[in-house]
Design goal:
By secondary structure, the chain is mainly α. Helix content is 64%, strand content 0%.
């Protein structure tokens, strides 16, 4: 029976294998930030300005998507028809 091949892992992989062999828990995600806070932080002016900017952007984006849903199909069909008529004109010239 041939000898088993020697495995060579990166240092990161070797440290992970050592962690698993030592039966240490994985601490990849800090769950403390998702725990409810007992104190209510007072937002500063920059946070309020950023929230307002994000809210305005999302409101305008929603309006744009609603307009696209309402009128987008017809605009696409009209543009397609115009392109087809241009193509027919070019084909006649050839």
């Amino acid at each position: 029976m041939p000898d088993a091949p020697i495995s060579s892992f990166s240092t990161l992989m070797q440290s992970e294998l050592d962690r698993v062999a030592a039966k240490e828990p994985l601490e990849a995600i800090d769950l403390d930030r998702y725990e409810p806070s007992t104190e209510t932080p007072i937002p500063d002016a920059s946070a309020l300005k950023a929230a307002y900017t994000n809210s305005s952007y999302l409101t305008l984006r929603l309006q744009g998507l609603e307009l696209l849903e309402r009128f987008g199909k017809n605009a696409w069909l009209v543009a397609n028809d115009q392109l087809e008529s241009i193509l027919r004109g070019v084909e006649k010239e050839l």
